[in-house]
Amino acid sequence: MTTSTDFAKYVSRFFTEHLAAEKNVSRNTVASYRDAMTQFIRYMEETGVDLDDLQMKHLTPENVKGYLKWVLDKGCSPSTRNSRLAAIHSFVRFVQYEDIGNLDRWQRILSIENMRSEKKPLNYLTPEGVKLLLAQVDTTTKAGRRHLALLSLMYDTGARVQEMIDLNVESVRIDSEPFVITLFGKGRKSRTVPMLENQVKILRMYMEENGLNDSNRFGTPLFFNSRHERLTRKGVTYILQTYADMARKESPEIIPERLSCHSLRHSKAMHLLQAGVNLIYIRDMLGHVSIQTTEVYARADSKSKREALEKAYRNLNPDVDTDREWEKDRNLLDWLMRQGK
Question: What is the 3-state secondary structure (H, E, C) of 295-314?
Answer without folding.
Answer: HHHHHHCHHHHHHHHHHHCC
